[in-house]
Amino acid sequence: MILRVVLAALLATALVAVSLPAAERASIESTETQMRATMSHFQTAIEMLPAQTDPVSPEQSLTHHTITLRLPERTWTSARISHVIIEPTATGGVLRWQVSDGQPHALFIEGVCVETPGHPEGIEIVEPGTHRLGLTLETRTETTVVTVRRLP
Length: 152
Hints:
With 152 residues, the chain is α+β, with helices and mostly antiparallel strands.
């Protein structure tokens, strides 16, 4: 009788040990899919802003569009996001993110200049939770730019 109980416990432990890596991979893949959709929406919002609104001067504090990013906590069904970076470049911008233990991802913003006022190297978000970002189309000397700011 004791032998059966010991064997049942060993079998249960082995089954859990075998299933944990698969559950971990599934949570990473699920979170990566969710983040790709969110970041693609963010990319489209930035690229389409010039066609949807009129630019304002930098002195005006007007947000044309608000993006809400939700970075999940690590749970059984979702992996933690290591970081999200909104990075200005000479030709536009880059949205970078990485799911913990996953591959780094990047979406390039083209056709519009991106600025992150107060953050010349870009805005980095590392803490889980809900983050609001404001997009504004602003006029500059001979050009327009989309500024991205963190909102309270």
